[in-house]
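Much of our argument rests on the idea that a fold can be written as discrete symbols. Part of our work consisted of pairing the sequence of a single chain with a tokenised description of its backbone. No coordinates are needed to read the tokens, only the vocabulary itself. The record that follows shows the chain in one-letter code together with its fold in token form.
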Amino acid sequence: MPLGTIDRTPPPFFRQGYSAFTKLVVFAALSVFLMVADTRLQAIATFRATIAAPLAYAQRALLVPVDLVVGGSDYLQGLARAIANEDAARKLLAQQSERAQTAARLEAENRQLRALLELKPALAVRSQAAEVMYEAADPFSRKLYIDRGMAQSVLLGAPVITEAGVIGQVTRVYPLSSEVTLLTDRDAAIPLLNARTAQRAAAFGGTAQGSAMELRFVAANADVKEGDLLQTSGVDGIYPAGLAVARVKSVERQAEGSFARIVLTPVAAVDGVRHVLVLEPLRAQLPPPPAPEAAPTVKSPPRARK
């Protein structure tokens, strides 16, 4: 057979179609477009909420082997730990019995004083327990996902706490799960009140330490000391007042600066936490703000006729 008549084209099995560079450009442009549409136009929020419902069942199914391994290890090694925890719980219960009696007496006295002064009853904080499913895969953010969502009436902006204090806030709600942004995240902010001086300030996450917070816009001569306990102020309509948030770790004052650099340490550790409490935002119980009154129109005096 003459060599000129041989078909030298590759068989269909080895054909690659478009080049790798072309695919890279197309998919990179598509990724940029989707990120811009999601950030600026919120065009992907409905699609994300739609696929989050069926994916929740798949996520829980994938967590079953992990729970079995962790639960089996805890079962084999947990007898001594359970006995020690029981002893510690009995001691703590004995210590808290006196505090409970004192708290009941103060609560009754508080009700009598509020009735005497004709004050409105204090707002009741409704809550529900939730379990942490997993952490966000993004290494540049601090987020958790819990197994409560729209079906359990979780509201956007709901505070999330543990037995130690506040850990974060619900920033996205899906049908069967919710996203919790921790206080140490770079986009987190919370108003605080110094328990010692009753001074208000705002704390922000995203510090260089990673697991710390920063108290910003505080004057250099402000009365802030290391070890001060910072609590929620309750004036933002979201967090109830009196919840522990952080303690002052360090205070740096510079003569040439107007503000002090104050680093905080959160009181509630999120590493290894499995169960949290989701609170209802206070704004759900507060009356709507009054509508702004329209400014009265001022009529000009009539001109005198000549």
